[in-house]
Write a structure and sequence with these properties.
The structure is a homodimer. By secondary structure, chain A is of the alpha+beta class. Chain A contains 15 helices and 15 strands. Chain A folds into 4 domains: about 120 residues, CCA tRNA nucleotidyltransferase, domain 2 (Poly(a)-polymerase, middle domain); about 130 residues, 2-Layer Sandwich (Beta Polymerase, domain 2); about 120 residues, Poly(A) polymerase predicted RNA binding domain (Alpha-Beta Plaits, 2-Layer Sandwich), CATH 3.30.70.590; about 35 residues, no CATH class. Helix content of chain A is about 40%, strand content about 20%. The longest helix of chain A has 25 residues. At the A-B interface, α9, β12, α12 and β13 of A face α9, β12, α12 and β13 of B.
């Protein structure tokens, strides 16, 4: 069961069989890099490392170390995912500005050999290149004494790398199985779009529980507040549903980005998987896009109101975009509730060109009459002011006393959800880029009109959403 | 402003002028019995009292006293309201059965002179007769030492009579003004239909505040819990909005029947009246019945859903009927809310033949889909049971995890309020006679169909209700 996904037809008894060895092998056959793939990746990594070193030498930049990090360095990458992370570390006392300038200079010098290069920016600038078909990040960082005294978030990575490398040997397959299982469950990935499990987190779970099966079994009984502290050095409390204390930094929760619903989705999938350990958990069937006729059938069957707020996708990276979209989703739902519309559910979809906030309501219209409850009659001053304001005013239907309070039936300003959104959406608290885009224009479409959104990926999303 | 009535167009400044003497005289000219009316009523009362005494003598029943009580005995009756109360009191030690038998025998003997007689029943039986066009109650009661040791509720009346008679002399006009004002505000009458102020209560208010104007001024600042204890002998606490301790019984609240909304309506009217002391407060314009076309106009303007539950009026007295109807009004509103319909307001009307519960809803229909929120995923046993129950079940649209909880979208059993009422009304907690009547049959009509209810009085009620 994925968050907001249709359940599979899974059900059955509570008796947990073990996970069949055959099944694991079948999965590994698909996801585990071949020896040829492994050798090629190792060779490329080694070549890149020496090219970086050579570039630094050519530029006369001393005291740097080149570190190969990430899953490619640890033997825990999924076949076909060719991401290489090369860290260029500078002495801790290097001024930040100098680290950025010199680090990027080395990266650019290296990139002369690449098919493609693109500046990117996290806390520091770094360079993303395509090198012989591999996706490579060249990341300058500080070489600090320990992960607890990092100067920039990326400085942690080499410590993570060291911790995992020293402990994962012989358990790489278990990591691969867990990653692919999480991927199949829709909970793999620590980007702010997914809010799931990071690669490092899966490795720590395997180090802690020692196997994929043990992890899955343990997760069945996880509760929010579940805490894993491998080296027993936690220093502070955390509020996140899952707390996996970073073995290289006692204050950090490696699972900080994991949302409650992804946490619960994982628990749910683990339970279902143990009941019926089948290949489909690792490789779920692709959803097909919803046809126009299917959209109409579903609308007719549900008889609710479906609204879609459509606007141009802001040109920012997903880690900036999605938090703003999720915030917008909340803000729009809150706006509708404020005006007495009942929200059944909401959803966010963002494509290359267009972004859509989907809103399902009990009804898209409300009566003209709105009950406005005032103060109790005996709270004299307030009550009299309230009464004077509404009595005989335009657009007041009626006034009466109910449960000791003045009540006026006033004309509802927005009897249509569509009209409310068209008028008030721009006044919602929105993130910067989303606000800009919405300000430039948006459209609210309703029910059958949704058929005019024909993007393939949107229609796939719609299958889960309506 | 009356409970559930349209506001008048009254508004204005806070400055309270006095109540013009002219206005009071104008009102009294209409409501105060003429000298001729007074003499006639006194004569009739005296004649009745001696007839009752003679009847007792004829029947050989000793030791009874005849007491003339009620507003007719105290000079506080409104012109044209010809109600006479004659109490036939027996010694305290008379067995209850004997009091009833002998008391009714005397009453029946007296009734031989009447145009009409009808047995009625409060705590005891009593006889209601029409005597020379006057409505007379002949009520047997016990002659107890004080009102605090009564054997039946009616035994209090002679004590009330004595208390008021001894103090009201010279203030009768003030009582008349207050009664008529309350009548105009819709708060006069202590029957369970009205839940307003009793005649005795108005007299006590005048005794306490000494005039109509003082009472009205004081009421402007009343709050729930307002307590008036004329003889300062209150013994217990009360929860009712207004507490007027019975001067003849320290435990009794004379205003116990006054509802919060009638209490507040009176406060509201007093404030408005002092701002604009006008005749219309005593004699509000009669409401006209709503025409069919007006019903349609109002429905179109409000755009809400109006439902009417129509059934045969049970053949019981109003003091039995109305509490059951108000209970039904609450029960039906609760039923609708339980099934997620939003109730705007409700109303009760009961005529000779038909009774109607009016219900205004945000909408009379809801979507087929209903969101059913289950336990958190981590409450393992409950969560799994919930999921097994709904997953893949018939009439389930979709299941997902939201805010850590399993959610299933199930098919709503009653997407129409009308269908819900037709199916479930008989399962509501209803009073005995109302339940019987509803069980024999009822109809739920909606919106424009309401036009087929053409009773004049219902259409007047409808003017206040939709």
């Amino acid at each position: 069961m994925q968050s907001r996904n249709k359940y599979g037809a899974v059900s059955g008894m509570e008796t947990h069989k073990g996970i069949p060895e055959d099944l694991k092998q079948e999965v590994l056959k698909i996801i585990k890099p071949s020896e040829a793939e492994r050798i090629k990746l190792m060779d490329i990594q080694a070549e890149l490392a020496s090219e970086v070193k050579a570039a630094a030498d050519r530029l006369g930049i001393p005291d740097i170390l080149v570190e190969i990090v990430g899953s490619a360095a640890r033997g825990t990458w999924l076949s076909g995912i060719h991401d290489i992370d090369i860290f260029i570390s500078f002495p801790e006392e290097t001024p930040r500005k100098e680290l950025e300038t010199l680090g990027m200079a080395i990266a650019r010098e290296t990139a002369k050999l690449a098919e493609y290069a693109e500046d990117r920016h996290a806390e520091h600038p770094y360079l993303n290149i395509v090198f012989r078909g591999f996706d490579v990040d060249l990341v300058p960082c500080f070489r600090v004494a320990s992960a607890s005294c990092i100067k920039s978030a990326v400085d942690r990575t080499p410590f993570h790398n060291d911790f995992v490398k020293a402990r994962i040997k012989g358990h790489e397959d278990e990591v691969l199985l867990l990653k692919q299982f999480m991927y199949g469950c829709g909970v793999y990935g620590s980007e702010l779009k997914t809010q799931g499990f990071s690669g490092y987190l899966t490795e720590l779970l395997i180090i802690h529980y020692s196997s994929f099966e043990n992890t899955v079994r343990a997760a069945c009984s996880w509760k929010p507040g579940e805490k894993i502290d491998i080296v027993q050095h936690s220093e502070i409390g955390h509020k996140e549903p899952l707390v996996v204390v970073d073995p290289t930094d006692p204050r950090r929760n490696v699972a900080a980005v994991l949302s409650l619903d992804k946490f619960c989705t994982f628990i749910d999938c683990c339970r279902e998987f143990l009941k019926n350990p089948e290949l489909r958990f690792f490789f779920p069937a692709c959803l097909l896009p919803l046809e126009g006729s299917e959209i109409l059938e579903r609308l007719e069957s549900r008889k609710s109101a479906q609204l879609a707020v459509v606007f141009k996708t802001p040109d920012v990276v997903e880690d900036v975009l999605y938090p703003q979209l999720y915030k917008m989703e909340q803000a729009v739902a809150a706006l509708l509730k404020d005006y007495e519309f009942s929200v059944i559910k909401t959803g966010v979809w963002s494509g290359k060109d267009e972004t859509v906030i989907m809103l399902e309501l009990i009804s898209g219209t409300l009566p003209n009459v709105k009950k406005h409850i005032g103060p109790p009659v005996w709270v004299k001053e307030h009550a009299q002011k309230f009464k004077e304001k509404y009595e005989g005013a335009e657009d007041v239907f009626e006034g009466y006393i109910e449960n000791g309070k003045y009540v006026f039936e006033i004309r509802r300003k927005y009897p249509m959800a569509k009209g409310l959104l068209e008028n008030q959406l721009v006044n919602c608290s929105l993130g910067k880029q989303v606000h800009q885009s919405v300000n430039e224009g948006f459209e609210v479409i309703e029910n059958a009109e949704i058929c005019k959104l024909t993007d393939f990926d949107f229609r796939v999303f719609l299958r889960k959403c309506i």
